[in-house]
Specification:
Radius of gyration: 18 Å
Distance between the termini: 38 Å
Largest sheet: 3 strands, antiparallel
Structural class: mainly beta
Strand order of the largest sheet: 1-2-3
Number of helices: 1
Strand content: 15-25%
């Protein structure tokens, strides 16, 4: 997996005009991005995969019957 994950939308305004920040990436802190539309900067960080937990089917979690 690469160090940098590319966002598709700004988490603040939803615009797609994003650029990698000129600030160099800091290991373990995620990649920095800048939104040219709302002039905000933010970082992305992959936290990990979610565990499956107890094996329950999606219909049983929604209150449905099998």
């Amino acid at each position: 997996m690469s160090e940098r994950a590319a966002p598709f939308h700004c988490p603040y305004c939803g615009d797609e005009d994003l650029r990698p920040s000129e600030e160099g990436p800091v290991r373990g802190e995620g990649a920095a991005w800048e939104c040219r539309s709302c002039s905000r900067a933010f970082r992305l960080k992959f936290l990990g995969l979610l565990s499956q937990g107890p094996s329950a089917s999606p219909s049983s979690r929604a209150g449905g019957t099998s």
